[in-house]
Structure formats: structure tokens, C-alpha cells
Amino acid sequence: MERKFTPVIVLLILALTTFGCGLLGTPEPTATPEPTETPAPTNTPEPTNTPEPTNTPEPTETPEPVVELGEVIRSEDGGYSFRTIPGYTVEEAFGMASMEAPDADPDTGPAILLMGAFGEESYSPEEFFDEFTSDLEEGVEISPPREIDIDGKPGLIADVSGAIKGEEIIGRIVVAAPTPKHHFIMVAIAPADQWGEFGPQFDAVLASVRFFPPAGAEAPLPGEETRQWAAYATASSEFGDPDWSAMQTTGAPDTPECGDYTTAWASESYGTVEWIELDYDTPVLPTKVNIVQTYNPNQVVKVELRDVDGEYHTVYTGEPEDRSGDCPFVLHIVVEDADYLADGVMITIDQSVIEDWNEIDAVELVGIP
């Protein structure tokens, strides 16, 4: 890593001395010339059904599903993990990681750099972004940052364009604050004519990033059991957004009583089999899971815990049952002899018996950090 990407490495070390993380970006203006090509419909007015060209940008916006990634790399000092791009050279040390294409140019990539650290000062993503980008060299242009969620944590992403040693480059800068003192930066850089292929790979790696407490971070005492509510959630479907969305299950219970309230998660349709997955800030050796249901409990048929390596462990199976007399109802699951650290809960519900909605308000993960 010391031999390559000198301009970017300098920036990362600058950030490390300031807070403890790194940066880079790609201007969507250069990535979105396709919409300007779509006036082609004016050349072919006959097919009035050819607004399909306006649908074609979707593949460029959602390339992640077609990008196959490799193994998971964990940076214990940086407090993050990510999946690699097959064929790239990968190095990780002291909270910094790099991925370089086989034909990468030492100055312009394609490459991805990541950095995470636990610092003494607290910074919001906005403060971190402003401080870091203020040190960029002349000739590098940065777009206004946009808000983004990275593993359910607040962050910012910005596009970067410019020239390094006379060659036009495109890149991206991503900063995040998993906690006020845990800082993360991800930088991508590539020659402008290679970004079309490299950009989707960057997006896929970014989507694979997961956070955990970095080495040296303040943590609960060993052996001390902690209780935590979910920080982020996704589901197979949602009745609405934000009302009845999966994110309604994050945080402590807030549904006032049993009933069909917007403050709980409900699937798009009733009488279906659905799932919801919840993410937690602190990985723990799990001991209990508590599922708070506030409408038509208990249709939970399966509960799995996701460990920090992305593997799933079944801790509960059951049949749909009528617990409406106990509503609100908490399904208490005791987890025995777990030998892994869990940071996620996957719940499957079967609403086909009641042919109605089963709504979940909150899910508590209990365990030892």
C-alpha cells in the first residue's frame, strides 16, 4: 500500500492526523450524460411506447445486484468490514485498507481506499466532511455532499472530478460516523474512461460495508450483559413509508397499545409470509431476543441471528398461534450456548392462518459484548 496511490494516501494520512479516516468521489454529471442521450425519442416519434429509454437509466442506478464480490475483510483497528472485488490486490493494516485493480495506475487507479478509527474528538459527518475536504489540492472539484445510510449509520457521499498528473479522474468520497468518535472514510478513484465499469463495483463494495466497535473503542466491561434496540431495519415488503415501514421497528417500543398503529411494521399485503431483518450497533454473544408485537400476535415462525461474518443461526421455530388475548405480546427467546457474535436478527412471519396483518413494534437483542 505504501507504493501506490501516493496523492490519495497523503490525503488519507491528513485525515488520520485530524480525526482518524480517509476520502474520494465521482461527479454524477459525468455519470449521467445518458439522460441527455435519451432525447433520441424525438428522432423516433413513431413508437410513442418507447419511453423505455427513460427506464434504461435504472440499470446504471442499481448495478449492485449484478456485481459479484469476494471474501469479507475485517479491519479490527478501523471497526469496519467489507467485501472484496475479485482479482483486485487487497491490503489491510492499522485501520486502513486498499483494493487495487490488476492494471491500476499508481496515481489514478482504479482503486478503493478505506479507513476507520476511534478518536478522542466527536464529529458529525458534516463536520468531518468539511474539515477533510478543506485540505484537498487545487484542481479537484467536489460536488455538494448528499446524505446516505451506510450499514444504517448516517453518512455523506460526494462526487469528485479533476486531474492527477494530467489525467482526468473520477472518484467518490464517503464519510460516516458510526458513533460520534468512530469515524470512517471510503475513497474511490479511477481514470475517467474506466469509471463506467468501476463505478458499479464501488457501489457494491460500499453496500457491503458493516461497522463494529474498533479496537481501542470504549466498550462495556467484559462479561457485562447489555440490552439494545435495533438501529436499522429492512423487510420483504412494507405497507408504507414512513408509516408501517420496517424502520418503525427500530428503537424502543413506541406503539401505545395493541392495535393497527402506524408506529409498527406491517407488510404490504396481509395473509402472506414475510421477513424483517434488524441491525444492531454492538455485536454481542447473544443470550436473548425479545420481539414486541402489537397487532395479531404471534405469527412468528422463525428467528435467526446473523453473526458478524454474515452467517445465520436459527434460534427459534414455531407455528402461527393466536395470542391476541395477550396483546401487546412479547415473544421471549432464550439463546443458549452461542459461540458467535451477533449483530443482526432475521424474523420470518406467516400471516396465512389469520389472513390479516401481524405487526411488530420493536425487537431487543440481549447479550455480552
User: Total number of β-strand segments?
Assistant: 19
Indicate the proportion of strand residues.
Answer: 35-45%
Write the H/E string, N to C: HHHHHEEEEEHEEEEEHEEEEEEEEE
By secondary-structure content and strand pairing, the structural class works out as mainly beta
Shape field: elongated
The overall pLDDT, averaged over residues, is 80
Rg, nearest Å: 23 Å
Helix content: 10-25%
Uncertain regions spanning at least 5 consecutive residues = 1-65
Measured between the Cα atoms of the first and last residue, the distance is 32 Å
| Main sheet specs | 8 strands, antiparallel
User: How many DSSP helices?
Assistant: 7
Oligomer: single chain
Structure, described:
15% of the residues lie in helices and 40% in strands. The chain has helices at residues 6-18, 28-31, 33-37, 52-55, 57-61, 125-133, 195-208, and strands at 72-75, 80-83, 89-93, 96-105, 109-118, 140-142, 146-150, 153-164, 167-179, 182-191, 210-211, 226-229, 232-235, 273-295, 300-307, 312-317, 329-334, 342-350, 359-368. Strands 3, 4, 5, 6, 7, 8, 9 and 10 form an eight-stranded antiparallel sheet that branches. The longest helix has 14 residues, at 195-208. The two termini are 32 Å apart.
